[in-house]
Design goal:
alpha+beta; six-stranded antiparallel sheet; five-stranded antiparallel sheet; 16 helices; rod-shaped
Length: 597
């Protein structure tokens, strides 16, 4: 059972075709992207919608507040006009006050129910229209009268009440709001205090608030500074106890927007103070109203996301098919090459990158065939008996591992790197053979080790850096073939194989007097003096992966060709790297006694 599950998992993950991989990855990415975008859009839209609703409600409340403020200011202007233009400095014994009050009443009868001038003793001096105080009414005990007489500069606005101060027909029992103020009157030349009473029509507030709509469940109400309700859309229900409003709490809030929890429900309150009176205009928007708009938008976002996902899936299927078909054909050709068929016909097609890759693989295949042919021919034709023993020691693992890198690069679609390493390998062997010569120029020897370092650097995935420096004048001097490469190989396999950090290998060639000096320095693990002596006295093979040419062999070959005064000198300390100095005579290639043997 476990093996079956493992096989299904392996098949579903590892062996997916490129078309299926593109489709699955793109679709999953699209789903995640659309989900994130939808979530962000929903959150932003919800916040924006809530802010917009609250802002619109604030605008409505502001307009209502301005209308109420304007109404109250007009009322105060009317009272100022009656006082300063009609009553003040006018004797009440004359007929001028009546005429002036009548003129103002007629011009403002749409907002004024009646106007009355009451003396300080509570007697009606003048009224418009003509009115008479009820017999059982004691004006002196009324709040408007007491507050007005107590503060001469104060304009008093009462709570809404039934108009029942005067005797008249049934129409007098309508809802009004009273404006009262203390005034100074002149009676037969004497100044005395009186109260000017203006009963304002309450219908204004009913008409104003009836046209206000804050959305589903939202409403506006008006209180005085103590929280007593002046107007409320559910006023009758509040008075009957069927509805409870948090008006006392709202009256204590500062102007602005706040979210409150009342009766187990969250509501947004928008409070505005009405100018002179200190009244509070309160807008109430239940948060449930805002959530309704969010739910509607959520369904809209889900619909749009599903539509986009369907369209993207269709487009993805088309694109993945167009991309994958040329790659599938190219993959089939590469598999043929892996199986050893170098005569496979590669037909580049598809997008620019895929077509370019196909052309590169095709060109690379031709070069590999040509280079492999050249390598075999040069290796068989230029090998001579004197070098057979040494050349036969070259470990086939080096060539195998290098070719393995080439195949790996082809499989990983890195044709340029594969061509570079094949070219470097060809130059490496070409110089190694050198038409059977053992004495070559310094230039060729440096080129040989450069190609070797390039191959090894790719094999070890850039785990070390290298540099090669040679004076221009020494390039045409004589050098022993295959001299630097074994030493560099020793630095790589013994000096750097177990290093934690990046390695460095520096090769330098210089001339001092009649001598040439080749210096190979590495920053590897170094070695003790005992190991240095052992290195020069006994062949130490780098590893099964190397070329198989030991340091001792190089030192003996130098002495064989140039004399015992020349050879190697090794300087090394543990954990401090190793430096190998090669001492050769400075002789121009092809001249002098140091000719190829």
């Amino acid at each position: 059972m476990d093996r079956g599950k493992f096989s299904i998992k392996k098949l579903s993950i590892k062996n997916l075709s490129i078309q299926s991989s593109i489709f699955i990855y793109f679709t999953v990415t699209a789903i995640i992207a659309i989900a994130l975008i939808s979530l962000i859009m929903f959150q932003r839209f919800t916040n924006s919608l809530n802010a917009t609703i609250i802002e619109e409600n604030a605008g409505i409340i502001g307009q209502v507040g301005e209308s109420i403020d304007s109404y109250l200011r007009n009322s105060m202007k009317i009272s100022d006009s009656i006082y300063y233009n009609v009553i003040k400095n006018t004797d009440i014994s004359g007929n001028e006050i009546k005429k002036g009050m009548n003129l103002i009443y007629v011009n403002n009868d749409n907002m004024i129910e009646d106007i009355a001038l009451i003396s300080g003793s509570g007697e009606l001096i003048e009224s418009m229209p003509a009115l008479r105080l009820k017999d059982n009414i004691n004006v002196l005990e009324k709040d408007f009268f007491k507050k007005s007489m107590a503060e001469s500069e104060y304009i008093y606005f009462s709570m809404p009440h039934i108009r029942n101060l005067f005797d008249q027909n049934e129409s007098s029992y309508s809802w009004v709001m009273s404006l009262a103020r203390a005034v100074e009157i002149t009676d037969e030349g004497k100044a005395t205090q009186a109260v000017l009473l203006i009963n304002l029509n309450y219908v204004f507030f009913e008409e104003l608030f009836s046209n206000v709509n804050l959305g589903n469940g939202g409403y506006i109400y008006l209180t005085n500074d103590r929280g007593d309700i002046i107007w409320h859309p559910r006023q009758n229900e509040i008075y009957s106890g069927r509805f409870d409003e948090n008006n006392k709490y709202a009256a204590g809030l500062k102007d602005g927007i706040s979210v409150e929890n009342y009766g187990g429900k969250k509501v947004t309150l928008n409070v505005r103070t009405i100018g002179y009176t200190g009244w509070k205009l309160v807008g109430v928007t239940p948060n449930a109203t805002l959530n309704i708009y969010g739910i509607k938008f959520r369904f809209f976002v889900v619909f749009v996301a599903d539509l986009f996902l369907f369209l993207l899936a269709m487009i993805n299927a088309f694109i993945s098919d167009k991309i994958s078909n040329p790659i599938k054909r190219l993959d089939t050709s590469v598999r043929e090459i892996e199986s050893g068929n170098l005569d496979v016909d590669i037909v580049p097609s598809g997008s620019y990158e895929v077509e370019h890759l196909g052309k590169s693989i095709k060109n690379m295949l031709g070069r590999i065939k040509l280079l492999m042919s050249d390598l075999v021919e040069e290796h068989n034709a230029k090998r001579k008996s004197e070098f057979d023993t040494l050349q036969s020691q070259i470990n086939p693992h080096f060539l195998y591992n290098t070719l393995d890198i080439i195949v790996w690069m082809i499989e990983n679609e890195e044709p340029d790197k594969a061509v570079s390493i094949v070219t470097a390998l060809a130059k490496f062997f070409r110089i190694s053979l050198s038409k059977g010569k053992n004495i070559i120029t310094v230039k060729d020897e440096i080129e040989h080790v450069r190609n070797y370092l390039m191959i090894q650097n790719m094999r070890f995935k850039n785990r070390f850096e290298y540099s090669i420096e040679a004076d221009e004048e020494v390039l045409l001097y004589s050098s022993l073939k295959l001299m630097l490469q074994p030493l560099v190989e020793n630095a790589i396999y013994h000096g750097m194989e177990f290093m934690d950090g990046d390695g460095e290998i520096d090769v330098k060639v210089s001339k001092e007097g009649e001598s040439l000096y080749f210096t190979i320095r590495d920053n590897g693990l170094g070695m003790s003096k005992e190991m240095v002596d052992k290195l020069l006295s006994k062949d130490i093979m780098p590893s099964k992966k190397g070329s198989g040419i030991g340091v001792k062999n190089v030192n003996e070959r130098i002495k064989l060709y140039f004399g015992n005064e020349y050879g190697l000198r090794v300087e090394s300390e543990p954990d401090d790297g190793t430096k190998i100095i090669i001492h050769l005579p400075a002789a121009i290639y092809g001249e002098g006694k140091y000719e190829d043997r």
